[in-house]
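TICKET: design request
STATUS: open
ATTACHED STRUCTURE:
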């Protein structure tokens, strides 16, 4: 196998043209085989095999800096930098990350996981290079979907002022996760089909080259001018007007053409954008036909492309999807918003039933939130469905545009808590902390599928800003008999005793119930409370429980800092209630990739560890009381 030759970075340069063709096929077979067993991002990686190879043929690692936007398409890069053996542990706890990681390899120049960031990071590297007298190349790869994000334009605006080389590779596959939308997508579509322009450009070049003795020099001089030949015929070109040289479009699966244009880009003494056309999922028919399904996939059957996990239980996302459609059928003011994640957030059925009330704004969470505020101000009931880790990007808009005006926007916070194998950049473990700092915002979290439905109905009719937080994965079907109506700022008492009160947030219901059962088995008296409302706290219940409880135990899948437990502790302390608070949450750190059950065990969020913490805290209380006597 040609792949066997690739043991370290830059080994690809040992190969001849025939071996390079064989290598691209071998890489695709390797990725399909490995990802079919481990799960991961398949379609995006199959689409950039030749592009990655060409980048490695024209760059020197780790000296040169290659920055991947989002980073889920970096598998071939990892292969070509000597990490082949790591694929057996891809995205597993303690194994290789599915995203670029500087701590994993010196060839990974920048940690990425969210979109529209690579140009900004690349510009930072270029500035550092100039300030330190470096001579390395900097290349940022950004997908066309990421160009729907405003941060990319902020970076392009700054890139236009560069006086030294910086290459931006636009990987254009007409897909982000969902199909691209908006003006930039239409603009790139026009460029892709501008065959007449490409033919004119080639014809002019060929004609000029035929001029005796001076033809080649004329062509070379024109290439070095600010605008280039294309500007003579396409004067309104977007990137050129910004002062960024545009090269392309070029076939992203033709290594020879890619190498030629990338080498040409390196000779430009300012920012240059190379427009590369690729096919997402290339080389594997199921992924070509359904790239969205194979964007992030679990283990699957290679022959059929069908997933191996046949779990048919509804996820929280599916419950949200079905209930929202049902609500919208009865209320024409309900509208739904997504930031390029219609399928992932469960809004695809809403789009089918209510296309006029469905809005996909592209990868632009900041815009989505303020757009929702405008909809609400105009009398609609907007529901913005967004992953917890991506909601982080819209904090200011939530605070300033939605909550400052107390507008009735529903923020459906999907993938809250530990999401598992995507790792640090995707774990949704900060939302309770940052949302709880915002005045006027109500924050709720359901314990099971039935409460998810009830809370969503409550949220849509709520006349003020509200966030409903729920996790990835199957909706919990326990505690079905506990379905008290959702009442503003009121918790739900599931079991009432005394001494110890276990208070949980949302999907930690099963864990909390297991802790209660274990405490009962050991002879403790225990109350179990479903918090329901993280903000505002049910201070009335906390005050009441303090009369005959000595220990409050809080359980949440959120960082401890600023989370639910700390809010309970602050209230108990401020009111002088005389109750000890035992907080169970995620330490003040980023959580790496791995199976959620393994991560909970490592973080001390599984029933056995919590039980030990609770009994130890209770024993300390008993000892203190004995000493007081």
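STATUS: resolved
RESOLUTION: sequence designed for all positions
ATTACHED SEQUENCE:
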């Amino acid at each position: 196998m040609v792949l066997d030759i690739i043991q370290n970075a830059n080994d690809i340069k040992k190969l001849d043209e025939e071996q390079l063709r064989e290598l691209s096929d071998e890489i695709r077979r390797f990725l399909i085989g490995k990802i079919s067993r481990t799960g991961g991002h398949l379609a995006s990686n199959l689409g950039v095999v030749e592009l990655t190879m060409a980048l490695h043929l024209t760059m020197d690692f780790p000296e040169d800096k290659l920055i991947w936007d989002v980073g889920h398409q970096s598998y071939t890069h990892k292969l070509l930098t000597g990490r082949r053996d790591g694929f057996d542990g891809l995205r597993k706890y303690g194994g290789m990350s599915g995203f670029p990681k500087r701590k994993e390899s010196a060839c990974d120049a920048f940690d990425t996981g969210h979109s529209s960031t690579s140009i900004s990071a690349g510009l930072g590297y270029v500035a550092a290079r100039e300030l330190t007298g470096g001579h390395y190349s900097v290349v940022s790869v950004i997908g066309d979907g990421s160009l729907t994000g405003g941060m990319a334009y902020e970076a392009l605006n700054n890139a236009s002022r560069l006086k030294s080389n910086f290459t931006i590779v636009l990987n254009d596959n007409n897909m982000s996760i969902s199909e691209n939308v908006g003006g930039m997508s239409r603009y790139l579509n026009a460029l892709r089909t501008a065959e007449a322009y490409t033919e004119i450009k080639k014809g002019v070049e060929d004609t000029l080259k035929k001029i005796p003795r001076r033809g080649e020099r004329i062509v070379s001089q024109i290439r070095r001018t600010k605008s280039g030949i294309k500007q003579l015929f396409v004067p309104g070109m977007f990137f050129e007007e910004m002062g960024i040289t545009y090269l392309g479009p070029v076939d992203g699966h033709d290594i020879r053409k890619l190498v030629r244009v990338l080498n040409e880009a390196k000779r430009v003494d300012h920012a240059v954008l190379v427009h590369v056309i690729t096919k997402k999922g290339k080389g594997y028919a199921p992924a070509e036909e359904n790239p969205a399904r194979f964007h992030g996939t679990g283990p699957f059957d290679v022959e059929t492309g069908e997933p191996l996990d046949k779990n048919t239980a509804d996820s929280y996302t599916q419950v949200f999807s079905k209930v929202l459609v049902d609500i919208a059928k009865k209320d024409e003011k309900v509208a739904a918003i997504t930031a390029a994640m219609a399928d992932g957030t469960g809004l695809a059925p809403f789009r089918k039933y209510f296309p006029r009330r469905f809005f996909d704004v592209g990868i632009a969470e900041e815009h989505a939130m303020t757009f929702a505020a405008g909809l609400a101000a105009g009398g609609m009931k907007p529901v913005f469905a967004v992953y917890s880790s991506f909601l982080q990007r819209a904090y200011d808009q939530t605070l300033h545009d939605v909550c400052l005006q107390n507008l009735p926007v529903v923020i459906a916070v999907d993938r809250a808590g530990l999401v598992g194998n995507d790792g640090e950049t995707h774990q949704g473990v900060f939302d309770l902390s940052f949302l709880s700092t915002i005045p006027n915002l109500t924050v709720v979290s359901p314990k099971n599928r039935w409460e998810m439905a009830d809370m969503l109905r409550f949220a849509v009719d709520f006349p003020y800003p509200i966030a409903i937080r729920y996790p990835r994965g199957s909706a919990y079907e326990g505690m079905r008999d506990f379905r008290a109506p959702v009442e503003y700022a009121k918790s739900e008492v599931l079991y009432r005793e005394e001494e110890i009160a276990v208070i949980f947030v949302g999907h930690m219901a099963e864990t909390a119930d297991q802790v209660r059962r274990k405490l009962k088995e050991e002879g403790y008296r225990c109350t179990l409370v479903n918090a329901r409302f993280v903000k505002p706290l049910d201070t009335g219940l906390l005050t009441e429980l303090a009369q005959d409880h000595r220990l409050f135990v809080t359980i949440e899948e959120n960082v401890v800092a600023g989370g639910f437990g700390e809010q309970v502790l602050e209230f108990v302390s401020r009111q002088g209630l005389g109750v000890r608070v035992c907080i169970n949450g995620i330490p003040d750190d980023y959580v790496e990739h791995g199976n959620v059950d393994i991560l909970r065990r490592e973080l001390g969020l599984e029933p056995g560890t919590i039980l030990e913490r609770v009994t130890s805290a209770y024993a300390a209380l008993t000892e203190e009381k004995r000493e007081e006597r």
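CLOSING REMARK: The CA atoms of residues 420 and 599 lie 8 Å apart. The longest helix spans residues 17-38.
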